[in-house]
């Protein structure tokens, strides 16, 4: 189970007049995601949902609040006072808090993440990419290759194992990213707009494959997207984010029985509802900002 | 079409299957093709042959005396004499030994230091300003003090070559490692990679291009420093032969030395290019 308690994230930025200003990317977001659920975070672009996902993954420290995954704290929040800040700096003066450790690999909290532009390593073949994560997981050297080939076959990449990412299409790279994520046998997969960069036909096939894998393995999936149709088709719950500062605007349970069809009637009802929220936020923005 | 693809696939298979002497022979052949290939194209021959002819004709017609500009045919004869008397070969061997020692030292220190500075802010903040202060001192300016401290000999020559090659290797490595795409690091960290794993599997492969670039500049600078070192403090080596020829007013011998130095640099850089292409297949796109 993922539990986010009152997560806030402030950035200090410099505006066009050269004056330092604060930007609240995420404001007091509390969210509880039970195991095995498929949850989508939707919202307009730049509403802090990707930042929130990176906080869940432990790639950014929240300014306030804590994330617990199965009861374990992911990253401590940034210190609030000047004195605490000095101590914090001292403690992390050699290695930043988001690093794992110096020598030993330790997979943390069984999380895998898929990034918007895949982030598979271009200097490794498909096989090596998967073997890399298997090595991190601690699989014995002799077992790695066979296992990697199996994960590649699972996502439909059998036969492409000796290709480099630059020789692949966008859809194949996304499949490779998925294979890499599955290969660590995570309990939770976080996805940051995973299908934004592929064409519509490929996207639908990838979505179906993802659903199949999710149903087979029963993992928790948290997906960030700005595509309402995608969210409705795939997820159990939809969390709607408001524009900056990113807060949870609404949480909608999609109780349409599976397998779903892409143009079900009850789906279009929900879609209109979410649309209305979007529109309201766009026009009545001032009333929501602090 | 289909047949053609099939045959290509077969060829790829045999490529992978090649081993032993076959492999060595094929590698040497492809290296020669990659390096000398650009010299014997029709386009370049149409430039190089007239240039050589011009060089041959000018001293022969007496526009410039041939003692100042020896024609290439004469240079070739002198070059052959110098090579066959074994003296020049010995000098080349000594020079190469110095060059490799210096370059090896520069790489052995510059590469790890560059990686450390690019990887970690703590190291960077402590070490980088020092190198930024020292690097602008032109390496030849180190010659007098080096001769006084280390005396004339191999340590002094090696140190000077090291100075020339160290900073390009260091700064290029540092820059390449520092510019590593944060997304690749993030994806490694999410999967639990330790910093040591990230350095081996992400930072260094990502920085490969800049590192090879740094080594290439290092080779060029190392050659410069080799000649300066041998001119000021050596009794052997190509640089010494060069400065000695000046005393005997033998322009032909000087030209031979220059050609030897030029082709050494060219060959070393071609070897680096070849390794770069071998190591960075993944960059070759579709």
Short description:
The complex is a heterodimer of chains A (290) and B (286). Chain A is built from nine helices and ten strands.
Defining key terms:
heterodimer, A: 290 residues, alpha/beta, 6-stranded mixed β-sheet, 4-stranded antiparallel β-sheet, globular, B: 286 residues, mainly alpha, 2 domains, 13 helices
How are the secondary structure elements laid out?
The complex is a heterodimer of chains A (290) and B (286).
Chain A: E1 2-14, E2 20-33, E3 38-42, H1 49-57, E4 64-69, E5 72-73, H2 82-91, E6 111-114, H3 126-137, H4 141-154, H5 170-183, E7 188-192, H6 200-217, E8 220-225, H7 228-234, E9 237-241, E10 248-253, H8 265-283, H9 285-288
Parallel strand pairs in A: 3-8, 3-9, 6-7, 7-8
Antiparallel strand pairs in A: 1-2, 1-4, 4-5, 9-10
Helix pairs in contact in A: 3-4, 3-5, 4-5, 7-8
Chain B: H1 2-17, H2 20-36, H3 42-61, H4 72-84, H5 87-119, H6 121-134, H7 143-150, H8 154-178, H9 182-190, H10 195-206, H11 208-232, H12 238-247, H13 251-279
What is the top-level CATH class of the largest domain in chain B?
Answer: Mainly Alpha
Largest interface: A-B, 42 and 29 residues
The arrangement of helices and strands of chain B along the chain is HHHHHHHHHHHHH
Q: CATH superfamily name of the largest domain in chain B?
A: MetI-like
Characterise this structure:
The complex is a heterodimer of chains A (290) and B (286). Chain A is α/β, with parallel strands linked by helices and 290 residues long. Chain A has 2 domains: 2-110 and 187-284, P-loop containing nucleotide triphosphate hydrolases (Rossmann fold, 3-Layer(aba) Sandwich), CATH 3.40.50; 111-185, no CATH class. Chain A has helices spanning 49-57, 82-91, 126-137, 141-154, 170-183, 200-217, 228-234, 265-283, 285-288; strands at 2-14, 20-33, 38-42, 64-69, 72-73, 111-114, 188-192, 220-225, 237-241, 248-253. The longest helix of chain A has 19 residues, at 265-283. In chain A, 39% of the residues are buried. By secondary structure, chain B is mainly α. Chain B has 2 domains: 2-64, no CATH class; 83-282, MetI-like (MetI-like fold), CATH 1.10.3720. Chain B is built from 13 helices and no strands. In chain B, α5 crosses α6, α5 packs across α11 and α12 runs antiparallel to α13. Residues 6-15 of chain B have low confidence and may be disordered. The interface between A and B is large, with 42 and 29 residues.
